[in-house]
Amino acid sequence: METKNCSLSITVCTPTFNRGSYLDRVFDSLCIQDFCSFEWIIVDDGSTDQTDFVVNGIASIAKFPVIYIKQPNSGKHVAVNKALDLARGELFLVLDSDDRCTADALSFFYTEWQGICDRKTEVAGITVLTMDRNGEVVGSPFPYERCIDFLPQFYERFRVMGDKWNIHQTAILKEYRFPETPNENFCPEGLVWNRIATRYKMLFVNKPLGITEYLPDGLSANITKRRIHSPINTMMYYHELIESNLSLISRLRGAVNYFRFALHSRKYRLAFRTHPFCGFLVLVISAVFLIVDTKRIRRYR
Predict the structure, then answer these.
(1) How far apart are alpha carbons 254 and 232 in whole angstroms?
(2) Number of Cβ atoms within 10 Å of the Cβ of 89
(3) 145-155: per-residue pLDDT in tens?
(4) Over 60: is that where the pLDDT of 60 sits?
(5) Using an 8 Å Cβ cutoff, are 209 and 101 in contact?
(6) Pairing assessment for the beta strands 201-211 and 123-131 based on DSSP bridges
């Protein structure tokens, strides 16, 4: 379904699963934008609630294009890939179904991008801060008001913590799609961000634009469990972290987590063949995480 067209600069993508009751908040957030050159693609990841009914109502009154897709339950990463197939904006922004944004978010992104678009062969997109419902910045701010750098190296060098919000060139995201592994419903976003960083930098701007809510059934709340149930994508992320040019400490952390999730998935033989140098010490540390993870999952069942 689609509403009236306008010239498009940004595609806003909202993957959703049984979050029909929250989509009105996302819609209200988009309605107050001081920028009209965008479309909203909602990808329903196999919801069993009334998401389709809610979207029908939204589309009937929206003053911007609304595209609705429903797919079998496959995970957020597959939903993003699906939206990329239809995206018409020059820039692509994921706005989660439990999040909102400030009224100037889209215009700010567009203005900042226009200021550096002559470097689009070098810069993949823009990263900004997020805040909670009380206006407190999530995690740490950036050390500079504006800075262009490679994302993983920048985060490591300045110990950047907490959720941040990224907008990317659509063409680059289409080139670096999320891997779709059979029977796995989760993929760490860092896998794609780190792959992009092998060729492109990001513009980091010290401004909070995203408003984040952490729901009990959200991805953030269940991150360890989701990684355990998607071991191939998870191990792929940590494997590439081990092979990166980050510091030895970051790569050792990657090795510990690589073996941690290899143990969860009983793929430790593959892990030893792939990274035999890690040895017995890393395996012992990973086994400790295995025990802690198992107890934590049992506690929240």
Answers:
(1) 14
(2) 20
(3) 999 999 999 99
(4) yes
(5) yes
(6) parallel
User: Which spans in 1-75 are helix H?
Assistant: 23-31, 51-61
Is the dihedral angle over the CA atoms 115, 117, 119, 124 positive or is it negative? positive
φ/ψ (deg, to 5) at 75? 110, 160
Contact 82, 15 (CB under 8 A): no
User: What sections of 8-50 are H helices per DSSP?
Assistant: 23-31
Angle, CA 121 vertex, CA 117 and CA 123 arms, to 5°: 65
What's the token pair of residue 140?
């740490």
Domains identified in the chain and CATH numbers: 10-211 (3.90.550.10), 223-299 (no CATH)
Is pLDDT at 74 greater than 70 in this prediction?
yes
pTM: 0.89
Side chain identity at residue 223, one-letter code: I
Separation between Cα atoms, residue 196 and residue 202, nearest integer Å:
10
